[in-house]
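Follow-up to my post from last week.
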Amino acid sequence: MTTENASQGGRIFRPGSHVGIAILAASAAVLLAVSAYLAFFYAPTERVMGFVQKIFYFHVPAAWMMLWSAPLMAFGSVMYLVTRQEKWDRISDAAVELAVLFGVMTLVTGPLWGRKAWGVYWVWDVRLTSSLVMVMTLLACKIVRSYAGEGARNIAAGLSILAVLNAVFVYVSVNYWRGTHPDHIVRKGGLSPKMRTTFWLAVLGFHLLYAVLLWTRVRLARLEDEADQRQIGLEEVEPT
Amino acid sequence: MTAKILPALRRGVTKLMTWAFVLPASALAQSPSQETGFVPVSGAPDAAKVDPVPLVVVAYGAIFFLVLAYVVYLARRQAELARRIESASPPTER
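User reply:
Got it. Predicted complex:
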């Protein structure tokens, strides 16, 4: 390994590079802890649904994060297909992974809320079904990336663009089909001031968490790619 | 041979066409959005008897667990990367 390569390797663990992200991560943790506390001890219990409505404060932000990933996935995928630069593929891949993470959160917490609110864990409502399809499409994206070999990135980019169209459908579905899932409660001002404060703090916490995870994931992928390329270079210089 | 295939093909196409019309129609048949809030599912067990506390605890616990699991996954990948870099460096540079 050359001195230049060694200094690149040292860059990975440079202490100063972690300070900004550590502050962001600590802020996200504090905000989420505070919003969880407020959800239970500050926000009033909802009149109709009662205590189970507390799930709302983390369920909705998680769903929003899943949907926020969609434009990022689309942008990354389209840019990769056009420019063939790997950095766009890394961004798209990270966004897909985070969409799966927050999508699973949504799909786990939603049915728990539904068990009390609707009497059943799951109904084949338009929004629920389209959310499930979206998460499954994104999982397919990850599986393709792992097993499809050459050309996997192109297929994954195509699948993530498809998932983006699905995300739009998830969002607008409640406007056109009144299923079991409630309408846009937040947008229509269906929250009391205390509920609103708690909810928006949780939303901010989830946004910070998303930013931290995205940054970490993209950076890790970039460093792994650099390490792969360096290892290939090393093997070419010193054949075994 | 053809006499057997054609009726089967006709039945298959008929079923396909039926589903192609029935599925969107059933989706569209859901009443348009008018009210805000939760609508109980008809015929479901009485939701009033369900204790909400375990549901809320599991929901918040699941979110905490999923975030923690993802952070651990990233940390393990990062540790693996560090090991690779360490092993690739000549002894003098370690």
